[in-house]
Amino acid sequence: MSDTQSAVPRRDKYENPLVSRYASKEMSYVWSPEKKFTTWRSLWIHLAEGQRELGLDISEEQIAELRRYRTNINYEVAALKIFLLFWLTDSFFFYLLFSCYFLTLNLVRVVEEE
Q1: Is residue 71 helix, strand or coil?
Q2: Superfamily of 1-73 according to CATH
Q3: What's 8's DSSP letter?
Q4: Residue 56: phi, psi to the nearest 5?
Q5: pTM of the model as a whole
Q6: Are 75 and 33 in contact (CB under 8 A)?
Q7: Tens digit of each residue's pLDDT (9 = 90 or more) over 69-79
Q8: 36-59 pLDDT, tens per residue?
Q9: 3-state secondary structure labels for all residues of 22-68
Q10: Cβ contacts of residue 73 below 8 Å, gap of 6+?
Q11: Rounded to whole angstroms, what are the CA distances from 31 to 24, 45, 111?
């Protein structure tokens, strides 16, 4: 297999047909899964450090463990979690939308009956 047809997807480049045509290598990396997940983990580390400074019960060992695993990312699990997060969010808004719709129908029916 050639490099472009690798069985393992590249994580240091955002995959999109337009990227290969129009984006620089640097811009492609900015939007890549690797950059996204390592940035999130860096934010978690800084958040834990700030919370520790504010007095929350977070040990230095816990922060060190966060640092140790900052770049050790299971992309398949991360993709599944993101999918579930968006699915649950969409499901909630779908439920909310239809609840409001049926509530409105019931209110209209009550008003018409009076």
Answers
A1: coil
A2: Fumarase/aspartase (N-terminal domain) (1.10.275.10)
A3: S
A4: -70, 155
A5: 0.61
A6: yes
A7: 999 988 888 88
A8: 889 989 999 999 999 999 999 999
A9: HCCHHHHHHCCHHHHHHHHHHHHHHHHHHHHHCCCCCCHHHHHHHHH
A10: 11, 34, 37, 38, 41
A11: 11, 21, 52
| Distance in angstroms (rounded) separating the CA atoms of residues 49 and 60 | 9
Average pLDDT over residues 27-32: 86
The token pair at 14 is 């955002």
Structural tokens at position 42: 């860096």
Question: Can you read off the two tokens belonging to residue 15?
Answer: 């995959």
Domain range list for the chain: 1-73, 74-114
Length of the chain counted residue by residue: 114
- Taken in order 32, 33, 39, 42, the sign of the CA dihedral is negative
Closest to 69 (Cα-Cα) out of 42, 34, 51, 49: 42
Q: How far is CA 96 from CA 87, 91, 99, 101, in A?
A: 14, 8, 5, 9
pLDDT band at 7; cut points 50, 70, 90:
low
> At which residue do the structure tokens 């860096």 appear?
42
